[in-house]
Amino acid sequence: MHNDIEKILISKEEIEEKCKELGAQLTQEYEGKFPLAIGVLKGALPFMADVLRHTEVHLEMDFMDVSSYGGEMRSTGEVKIVKDLDTKVEGRDLLIIEDIIDSGLTLSYLVDLFKYRKANSIKIVTLLDKPEGRTADITADVVGFQVPNEFVVGYGLDYQEKFRNLPYIGVLKPRVYGGE
Ligand code: PRP
Ligand code: MN
Ligand code: MG
Questions:
Q1: Residues near 87 by Cβ (< 8 Å), separated by ≥ 6?
Q2: pLDDT tens digit string along 110-137?
Q3: CA 137, 138, 143 angle in degrees (round to 5)?
Q4: Which of 25, 64, 139, 176 has the smallest C-beta neighbourhood within 10 Å, fewest atoms?
Q5: CA-CA-CA-CA dihedral for 46, 167, 142, 89, to nearest 10
Q6: What is the model's pLDDT at position 30?
């Protein structure tokens, strides 16, 4: 375990198992369709790769880079597009892929944007859901794990751009972010 990690919340094996399960579920839900899978950079990258590996329908992949946190610990409430999609959304069945829903601001912004762009359907799949953090009215269609209101990193989730490459989800030691 990494020295800055207090405890492992979700192990590599548990994540692998969950990706298989969710992939099978998405396979059923999108049978006969050609969804556009949208990864929200950068956090969604490992989860997107692993869950879609187990989603056995034809699909298209695209990416959107939206930033709401900057370098801050808490969301500023401001969402900005850093990189937009290359693909047209109109009439498409969208599957938005996220690593975590916290305040919900990132996703509520994206859902509004894709509705405005006339998507045929919009589903959200997230590996982690932190319900206690929610300020926006948004729920995911498919959730891997619920997490408590702690500072979680790893498997795509960062603290100041670090820890995304950990193969598990862990809780950060408070001293790393200047807590006690
Ligand atoms: C993080 C995370 C989600 C979002 C969740 O991304 O990956 O995308 O915040 O928070 P919210 O529900 O409060 O909006 P971040 O903006 O830090 O960018 P990153 O994925 O590049 O780390
Ligand atoms: Mn993100
Ligand atoms: Mg981040």
A1: 36, 60, 62
A2: 999 999 999 999 999 999 999 999 999 9
A3: 150
A4: 139
A5: -10
A6: 98
Taking CA atoms only, the protein residue closest to ligand 1 atom 13 is: 103
Going by CA atoms, what residue is nearest to atom 3 of ligand 1?
100
| ipTM associated with this complex | 0.98
CATH number of 10-152: 3.40.50.2020
Nearest CA to ligand 1 atom 17: 69
The residues facing 126 across adjacent strands are 98, 143
Is the CA virtual torsion 8, 154, 107, 61 positive or negative?
A: negative
Enumerate the active-site residues.
Answer: 102
Q: Where are the domains of the chain?
A: 10-152
| H/E stretch holding 48 | helix 45-52
Ligand 3 centroid – CA 136 distance (Å)? 18
CB neighbour class for 51 (10 Å; exposed up to 12, middle 13-18, buried from 19): buried
Please tell me the distance between residue 67's alpha carbon and the centre of ligand 1 in angstroms. Answer: 7
Question: What residues sit around ligand 3, an ion, with C-beta below 5 angstroms?
Answer: 158
Each residue's pLDDT tens digit, 73-98 = 565 667 899 999 999 999 999 999 99
Q: Are 45 and 39 in contact (CB under 8 A)?
A: yes
